[in-house]
Amino acid sequence: MQRVNRSTAVAVLPSPPAGGAPGYFAAPDPTGGVPATVPGFEWYNLIQEELMAVIEGQGLVPSSTDHTQMRQAILKMIQTGQKAVVISGVTFAPAVTSSGMAVYWDTVNSRFDLALADGSAKQAAVGFSDIVNGAVYALGDAVLFTGLTPGHYYLSGTVAGAITATVPTTNVVSVGVAKSATEVFVDIDAAGGITQTQADARYAALAGLATQLFNVASATAASHAVNFGQIGNGKAIAKAWVNFDGTLAGTITPRASYNVSSITKNATGDYTLNFTNAMADANYAPAIVSGYSANASVMNSINRMSSATPLTTTSARFLSSISGSSVNPEIVTATIFGN
Description:
Elements (H helix, E strand, L loop, with lengths): L40 H17 L11 H12 L3 E5 L13 E5 L4 E4 L10 E6 L4 E9 L7 E5 L7 E2 L8 E6 L4 E8 L5 H7 L1 H11 L13 H4 L8 E5 L6 E2 L3 E3 L1 E8 L2 E6 L9 E7 L10 E4 L9 E8 L2 E2 L4 E7 L2
Antiparallel strand pairs: 1-5, 2-3, 2-4, 4-5, 5-9, 6-7, 6-8, 8-9, 10-12, 10-19, 11-13, 13-14, 14-17, 15-19, 16-17, 17-18
Helix pairs in contact: 1-2
């Protein structure tokens, strides 16, 4: 975007003329004698300068050939505003009376209070107060201060809520680096003197949230999520199972299954189970049962693992026979347990 560059343009912004009270454009009515509202030069300059203020305020050089500068400027403002982690809508203790005071989370009273490097929970500082906006700057640029000297700052051990450029001898809590007299890059870290209990207090809210999210209670109703401890460890759960018709030939599709993609019929009573997902190792335990449903006078078949092909992680081969003769059972079931 660029300012108007016609030959009649002037180099200095002219003062607006005296006019009537601010209002709105009128709807003209020629028949009723109501004239249209015609903007003056001052109104066009007003609109132009409002737009240019946004563009130039973000360091962009106006260009008459770039039609995206307003969008660029808005994006830069958004990105600039994302330079800090801010906790909003907070409650401060009465002692927190101004902005730029170091604060900690008071878990007993559920509010932010003045931090102090005294070896207690008070030195678990989380950020700096922003009284005007009811917020706490927890990380990033915070323009809340006056009279700072650029350099490293620490939580004071003598004045609650204060920071110091002098490195403490005990209870060292680094609060960040002053970038200017008014701005600190907040990065609170306890270099020493903070106990695990105090660290836990600092992150109490986060820890509580994590507990709610990841600690699943035991199920007591059908609609509840099941606690893994109610199921048992992984070895107690079948890694695969299948039910199929052994009288079919070729590649047999299971009637129902889990982790068995297909069954290959090698010969009469000779079957290979093919796993969808490989087993962890070949030391699993197959349990195979087969028989007939249509002919009750025929005995159930005897199943054994094939000596020709040992168990592998991707398949298991077994044989079905009666009185030493291979047979094709109508119903074959297999369940696999393993690591």
